[in-house]
Amino acid sequence: MADHTPRTPHQPTGSGAAAPAALAGITVDDVRAAQKLLSGVSRATAMEGSRYLSELVGAPVHLKCENLQRTGSFKIRGAYVRIAGLSAEERSAGVVAASAGNHAQGVALAASLLGVASTVFMPVGAPLPKVAATREYGAEVRLHGQVVDETLAAAEEYARRTGAVFIHPFDHRDIIAGQGTVGLEILEQCPEVRTVVVGMGGGGLAAGISLAVKALRPDVRVVGVQAAAAACYPPSLAVGRPVAIEPLATMADGIKVGRPGDVPFGIVRELVDEVVTVTENALSSALLLCLERAKLVVEPAGGSPVAALLSSPGSFEGPVVAVLSGGNVDPLLMQRILRHGMVAAGRYLSFRVRLTDRPGALANLLGVLTVADANVLDVGHVRIDPRLGLTEVEVELHLETKGPEHCAEVTAALREAGYDVLAV
């Protein structure tokens, strides 16, 4: 199973006694008010049990399916509450946002529902399905910059120039109150919950959930999950203030944030019990598991809580609720991630062998694989290489297998047949 990077535990000073008090000016009553405001707007998403994860963890595990929310993620909750709170004068100026995907769609739909004009800046390389969806929800989309930081700067400059209200994806009390409604639903749907596991980027969702849950059930443990390549919270929690990092490449672009938000950071520091990080292998394995076992399409960021459960199943007291925060994943990216997940799960085998370049040599090799019951996905030939003799050819094969044990059986069968199996 995928590796689990070191945990970053901390003692939340507000756990229990301070939870009902206002943190960053937000109370559970604000979250309740947001829930009333969102009635008929956002969905009370389903909670599905997972037999596989329950057996793995040794306690009931439930999946909170925000991937089935309107726009495909939880973002509509906070965006609607934020825009609904604007004055008539502010609404008349319109709103602006910057996002590569989920926040863009949440703002676009929320603004349309409230009759407010919206402009959304997206990176030039943003996936076409996300760009199209944002436009269909009613926003004017402007493609600018190669990375989100450049897009964000363009959106902020537009706000200064036009007077449009900038809608931050996580660093605002109304956003956090809206996201906190997920926590209220968790307690309503699974009152016996002992641990809530939620993905974290800037921290808006984790802050909102922890604020709502801890106010009503201070005994419930809240665990935040970050991609190891883009984990801004561990160093920030270590020094007690938000610090910026340079996030590395990660498939979990939905939680790839270089610095915690000022508002959510204070809540996370007080109320989130632990922050863990997960590897890319764990993320892809989680995506594959959600698709195969739960029949749910999730994006890598949305599957990060499942990745944490897969990585360290004995660390979570049940019943556990894992929040699947989003399901907006580009089909081409999904294809690559699923292949990555198959490799991580030991269900994909790649290797090279050298053959004598004569008729029937490849057929003999494929015959061995047929007997071994391995499914050949791809075959490549190399005939011109200084490492090869005049009568040699190197063949690279990619196989679909049934798991790590089958990989070992296939490799053993090839070697027994006289082939020198080389790693790709």
Radius of gyration, in angstroms, nearest whole number: 24 Å
Q: What strand order characterises the main sheet?
A: 1-10-9-8-11-3-2
Uncertain spans, ≥5 residues at pLDDT below 50? 1-11, 13-20
Mean pLDDT over the residues: 88
Helix content: 40-55%
> What do we call the CATH topology of the largest domain?
Rossmann fold
Count of discrete alpha- or pi-helical segments spanning 4 or more residues: 17
Overall geometry: globular
- Largest beta-sheet details: 7 strands, mixed
Q: How much β-strand is present in the residues?
A: 15-25%
The helix/strand class is: alpha/beta
CATH class group of the largest domain: Alpha Beta
How many strands appear in the DSSP assignment? 15
Tell me which CATH architecture of the largest domain applies here.
3-Layer(aba) Sandwich
Number of domains: 3
End-to-end Cα distance, whole Å, is 21 Å
Q: How does this structure look, described?
A:
The chain has helices at residues 28-37, 51-57, 75-84, 88-93, 102-113, 128-136, 148-162, 173-179, 181-189, 204-216, 233-239, 262-271, 280-292, 304-311, 331-344, 361-371, 404-416; strands at residues 8-9, 47-49, 61-65, 95-98, 118-122, 140-143, 165-166, 195-199, 221-227, 274-278, 320-324, 348-356, 375-382, 392-400, 422-423. It is α/β, with parallel strands linked by helices and 424 residues long. The protein folds into three domains: 8-72 and 173-342, 3-Layer(aba) Sandwich (Rossmann fold), CATH 3.40.50.1100; 75-166, Rossmann fold (3-Layer(aba) Sandwich); 346-423, Alpha-Beta Plaits. The strands form three sheets. Strands 1-10-9-8-11-3-2 form a seven-stranded mixed beta sheet. Strands 6-5-4-7 form a four-stranded parallel beta sheet, with helices on both faces. A four-stranded antiparallel beta sheet has the order 13-14-12-15. Helix 5 runs parallel beside helix 6 (128-136), helix 9 packs across helix 10 (204-216) and helix 13 (280-292) packs across helix 15 (331-344). The radius of gyration is 24 Å and the shape is globular.
